[in-house]
Amino acid sequence: MQAHLVLIDAMNLIRRIYAAQERLYPLNGDLSDKTKQQIIHNTKTAATKALQKIIQEHEPSHALAVFDCQGLCWRYKIFPDYKKGRKKMPEHLAESLSDMQDGFLALGVDSLESEHDEADDLIATLAVKMALNGQNTTIISTDKGFLPLLGHHVQVYDYFKKRYFDDEYVQQKFNVKTAQLIDFWTLTGDTTNKIPGVAGIGQVTASELLNTYGSLKAILAATDLKKSVAKKFADTQLQFELSQQLLNLKKDIPLGFNLKDIRLHEEVIPTGINT
Q1: Are residues 88 and 182 in the same domain?
Q2: How many domains would you assign to the chain?
Q3: What is the span of the domain harbouring residue 209?
Q4: Higher model confidence: residue 230 or residue 6?
Q5: What is the pLDDT of residues 264-273, one digit of tens each?
Q6: Average pLDDT in the 67-89 region?
Q7: Fewer CB under 10 Å: which end of the chain, C or N?
Q8: Contact, 8 vs 65, CB < 8 A?
Q9: For the domain that residue 64 is a member of, what is the CATH number?
Q10: pTM for the complete prediction?
Q11: Domain membership flag for residue 268
Q12: Does residue 179 form part of some domain?
């Protein structure tokens, strides 16, 4: 029987649920301790129910909730402005994560967290290992950073809008092919994570260039670029290298467990994929 692994981008799920719960309370100054406790309780309850629905909807053979590391990940070390300005997680939410992990475990879904890597890298590593072994993965997240992983054995699902992201979505949203997304974001930058692009190159120009030349490498090697465009690329090689390093997800992190360790059901399924 073919394995189907569901990977939950846990903080993507929890923080969106938390934000929805927090909006139910008027924000007139700081939240009281009692209100914070109520919001956390509601968030944990809603997150657990969401996980139940995810399992029911996708019927996976295996599942894992993947959390970001508590400290600064490796990307901050090579680019201190990574995610600069992003709203910090509320302290009372951060302190409740272990309780939420316990709630997930009560449903049979274990949690994974690295000391140095983001959840995105852990998820990418697992999804690629599954695909290389001909097994299926569904990533539960609204994060566009997973879109380059889309393929025959990897799909990405938005739990909140109840839709799958696919190659057609990528084409309509960005006007490039899925395989061109990293080059696309290298040109435009990624404002969500504060990863720089090329000044003066927006989505329209980036997609036109990639549709014409096929790749960033081919664009840089082209001799027929408009002078105004070619000028924008002057002295950008080091920036491109940094941006691509930041944008590309790690796919080779040693995780130290076997697929059978995160099995949900007792059916006989492939268990020889070492991670």
Answers
A1: no
A2: 2
A3: 171-247
A4: 6
A5: 955 433 444 5
A6: 90
A7: N
A8: yes
A9: 3.40.50.1010
A10: 0.93
A11: no
A12: yes
CA dihedral defined by 57, 7, 98, 116, rounded to 10 degrees?
A: -170
Q: For 251-266, how does the pLDDT look when each residue is reduced to its tens digit (9 = 90+)?
A: 999 988 888 999 995 5
155 with 196, same domain: the answer is no
Q: What is the token pair recorded at 237? A: 């090689």
Cα-based distances in Å from 86 to 81, 91, 218: 10, 15, 34
If you search the block for the tokens 């969106």, which residue do you land on?
Answer: 16
Q: Are residues 124 and 186 in the same domain?
A: no
DSSP E strands: which ranges in the chain?
4-9, 62-67, 110-113, 136-140, 154-158, 163-165
Query: Residue ranges for the binding site for Mg(2+)?
Result: 120
For residue 88, give the DSSP letter.
Answer: P
User: Could you give phi then psi for residue 50, rounded to 5 degrees?
Assistant: -60, -45
Binding-site annotation, residues = 120, 187, 196, 198, 201
Binding-site positions for K(+) read 187, 196, 198, 201
Residue 63: strand pairing partners? 6
Beta strand 154-158 with 163-165 is: antiparallel
